[in-house]
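Reopening closed ticket. The problem is back. First fold of the pair:
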Amino acid sequence: MLTFEALSETAEFARKWVPFCKKHNIEPRAPEFYFAQKIDYLKDKIQPSFVKERRAMKREYEEFKVRINALVAKAQKMPEEGWTMQDGTPWPGNNPRDHPGMIQVFLGHSGGLDTDGNELPRLIYVSREKRPGFQHHKKAGAMNALIRVSAVLTNGAYLLNVDCDHYFNNSKALKEAMCFMMDPAYGRKTCYVQFPQRFDGIDLHDRYANRNIVFFDINLKGLDGIQGPVYVGTGCCFNRQALYGYDPVLTEADLEPNIIVKSCCGSRKKGKSGNKKYIDKKRAAKRTESTIPIFNMEDIEEGVEGYDDERSLLMSQKSLEKRFGQSPVFIAATFMEQGGIPPSTNPATLLKEAIHVISCGYEDKTEWGKEIGWIYGSVTEDILTGFKMHARGWISIYCMPPRPAFKGSAPINLSDRLNQVLRWALGSIEILLSRHCPIWYGYKGRLKLLERLAYINTIVYPLTSIPLLAYCMLPAFCLLTGKFIIPEISNYASMWFILLFVSIFATGILELRWSGVSIEDWWRNEQFWVIGGTSAHLFAVFQGLLKVLAGIDTNFTVTSKASDEDGEFAELYVFKWTSLLIPPTTVLIINLVGIVAGVSYAINSGYQSWGPLFGKLFFAIWVIAHLYPFLKGLLGRQNRTPTIVIVWSILLASIFSLLWVRIDPFTSDATKAAANGQCGINC
């Protein structure tokens, strides 16, 4: 009800805000962030009326905010009889888990004009049907419902996916995406254009690597040179045809085998080069592989006008319904490559059909969520959806305009950040243990080898938490036992060891130079990789195994701790208890105890023991340096850490330390026997 009423107010405000933005080239278009800018807003403005109009618009916006605040205050407590709409009828969505589908056109065919008489963009409220006993698939299910209802009502050829906590920072961003989507050479094989994520409200030093600079400015830029970046769930412009499971229109160059296949099997025969269609109709009709759709975009007639009956060249109406669902209007819309709806269509009929396609049972026994639309089966549905498109041969584009296209908010306190990383890592583990795992899925498709390796890296990274945790503990155990982590090796072997590290550092430096990422951003990324690896990634591995193999869905809840801090980054110091904090705290305590034990031993043993100690101390301090942002977050602004975290961490650290000393794996059995005074038969 709050969303519905707020959108109604937004539609009214847009009639004044949109013409003001267009007239004066306002950036960003989000009024909250435009009016909050601490810049000279008169720069580049030449119209004398601008100051007066801006002052009036700011007053309009403040009045709009007051009306929204009144709606929020009203929504804090639901009346016993439930919400009622302005006309007195009960609100259909009083039970959020059991309500019919709802659609309200706020700005559409009639009444969608601004104060200057120009047509406004469509604004339509959609709430899909919810009933007990149905699986609604959360965000992925909501996106698929929006694909269908938008195809029926407007059928735009392209879709933009932006999270609710993001806003347009660059109104020209969509034009940049269209340059790729409508390109004669690349347009018909481009499934989506991905923009990097940029964030507001993050502390200057980005303590918990919220900006993900290394991922967005190095990894995705690198993938852009292969088959395109992975889909990251927001800030993405889609080709609607790719979401329907159609094949891209590929050239002969695209159909050439990759360099490995070419070197083993040779190139294609020249006689086949004249055939531009890579699949003939007989093969397309017989195809049943899930990685490649059973129909081809090239075999569909272009420029379909109206909703004719002759739209199924390769499949019967029955098989179309089995794939897309039982909606003739929607099925017809899927064949209109350029989008749009016939001018003779009755709006009332379309609304009735739109309600039908967002019903609970519409997706039953169809391929929604399996082969078309957003793919189900993981909390990170974005990775799966992009992977399926790339497996069919589509390419994606990474677009980085100088002015960021979108900006959003990110969790800036430690607990929220770790839970966000946990969700991502859990999704990767779910994909790893599913049939869509890139290690074994889609080899009959057109996924390039390096792109496959990138997807494999995207889903297996949580597993690195296990060896990472072991390496973070080893320095402390070495200090406790007096043994060294690195064995003695020959000069020849040490040369290879040094060359390996030099090559790794050289690669990192070249990546930084190429992408323009600063050393500080790189170091923050390295630090949070260790923090996340010893906490969220580790929990995700075990939680994913329990969920997929045993069917046990374990949720790590977050309990907020009240904060009385004020200031711009007050939330940075808010502490929220979560079990994710225990493993890294344990690692910290073990290493600190190890340092104290090592230094104490060196003091008691004389100066000759200080030389070996420095090597051991280096690794322990290196671990603590990586966990330093975690330590700062744990202590907070006033050095307050919950007792439960300290108790559990000290308990675990003590158990591991005593166990390690008792096992003493660096000492051979014979040495142990001699130390204990035991003598064998050959004494």
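Second fold of the pair, where the issue appears:
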Amino acid sequence: MTITAVPVVKNGCLMVRGKVILTGVPDNVVVSPASSGAAFVGGKAQTSSSCHVINLGILDDCKFMCLFIAKIWWMIPRVGRSASEIPMETQMLLLEVWEDSVLGVVEDETPATGQRFYVLVLAVLDGAFRTTLQGTALNELQFCYQSGDAGVETAQAMEGVFVNSGDNPFELIKDSIKILSKHKGTFAHLENKKAPAHLDWFGWCTWDAFYTEVSPKGIKDGLESFKEGGISPKFLIIDDGWQETVNEFHKEGEPRIEGTQFATRLTDIKENNKFCSESDGSSTNLKELIHYIKDNYGLKYVYMWHALAGYWGGVLESSEALKKYNPKLEYPVLSQGNIGNIRDIALDSLEKYGVGVIDPHKVFDFYNDMHSYLARSGVDGVKVDVQNLLETLGSGYGGRVSITKRYHEALDESMDRNFTENNLICCMCHNSDSIFSSKRSATARASEDFMPNEPTFQTLHIASVSFNSLLLGEIVVPDWDMFHSNHSTAEFHGAARAIGGCPVYVSDKPGKHDFKILRKLVLPDGSVLRARYAGRPTRDCLFVDPVMDGKSLLKIWNLNKVTGVVGAFNCQGAGSWPMKESESVETTTPNSISGRVSPYDVEFLEEIAGENWIGDSAVYAFNSGTISRVAKGDTIEVSLGLLQCEIFTISPIKTIKGGIEVAPIGLISMYNSGGAVEEWVVIDDDNRITIKARGGGVFGGYCSIKPSSCKVDKKDEEFTYNSENGLFTVYLQSDGSFKEIEIVF
């Protein structure tokens, strides 16, 4: 439960729960109570402007973790201890505050009880303005407040920074997002959204398999090779490469000028010539292709890719098919945030060549026409990419927030009309303009792409998706992106996807699959054992750097219906965060990193354990195949080499009649073993338990004594029992139905 204590400014200090958070707070800073103990912090300027930078005060010697836009499209995390380490474009700041205040307690304030609490600072939208946080070399914490349109000005920046506090950082973020969504009314919490249909099924995306060379033949070849291996995708994303486009800056037969590919523009809402004829005669258009692959390969859902502006360079002004949407060539206007961190080649290109911007008053017609055509062709949903581009196109349209809001409202309306299952994946959409304009969209990519040819990026990817999910996971289901099953890091990525609460899909080239990896993720019916929430760093990992400090493992926690799960990942030594230099003189990272895992790494485990749980758990380590009985408060040591991981299924132990202890684990050949357990019931009078399970394979559990018998769907089954560690196993047939396991003692 979030403790309520409204932040206040007193004696030049920003106080939260009686603790000093900021000193030297200027007189123009204003605190306005929100609700439930939260507040907005703003400021007044002397003159009206479209952009203000306002000092909030000094932040020093306080552990923080922040999420910031490193490159226009994506957030990454950063940890530190003072404001000088907080980059431009920071959107979320989480502080760890101990009983001894950052800089002491003001005399007449009563200290809060407890050893530590957390302060959340969110940079949010305020009308037509967007806020970000940043630090200075003097440890001043500032907020930047901008509209993105010189004609949209103000001298009052009152509700751009939201501050709240609590004892549990995960509850704090959740409660804060709910407060904000109710107060602002511009977005919705994930609990109030409809989840897309594809999330619980294994998928395939064409991007890394073909890039823009995707074709009907390639799609069929890929689906056929999956089928031959015995694991077929149930959802397919036909990514970039299917649309009718033109590049005015590239002439046939001449070398391509680097960057001009991003200035390519859309010329029609229909498919290009590649999809209008197939040599084997199986399809002559997109509709026929989709019906063919659904009929022959068991696909449930097919999504098509498009950019929020139509294509990377927008739409072609002179296109006869698109003239009715009143497109106009506009040139992106870059903010200080766009150029102050990492510049992006795509944005540099579009700044030079321009974007064909659809009239915001016509953008619903554009989406509706395209989506209705796709829906009539058998398409079930869309992946909408390149969304943050709009932040640079607000000049003359009421500003970046206003144009983003209008486009998102049009997209939501079209989705509601044409894809009633809310089958939308948002991508390249990490700016707060998009996040806090998300009323219906329920899935969004959580980090920069999986890049199979970039060995230094693999660990950054896992760290980014887990930390970014702290914020994104309260608004959308974070999509941790595709990966390659046949790749040196496939186990690392696959294990992360299994516990990430995210969709599981790959982008394998046809014939390039590792079915051993895929069978640890995908059940025979094509479904996946998706955990309940967004995978996030454990509490003891929130303020450490799992990529560059040379000593910390990354631990990610999640919950299933009756079990918890913790993944431990060694992300050290393989890459470095952009915009950050290593603080250590040492240039080498140890071959192995050690850490400790505890059942209490799983937040809210007691809620699924039930009232009579005494705190002990059975812990199953997937890769080592070991099971341990872990008493309350105890830990397990784990040591991992570079790019190694271990997945721990944590099942609360229950005591039944006669002092017998039992705990289900799940399918022990699957990364997220516990995801296979739907429910279990103790029947004390008969000294037995019943377990409802999904999928097929070896099902395991912990028993303190050997059972006398086991039945599966009321039929006696042979089982094994290891008296040394208490591991019980029984084999489940994989016919796609739920199984009822009855264990009698």
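Update: turned out to be a display glitch only; the data is intact. The longest strand covers residues 154-166. The mean pLDDT is 94. Please close again.
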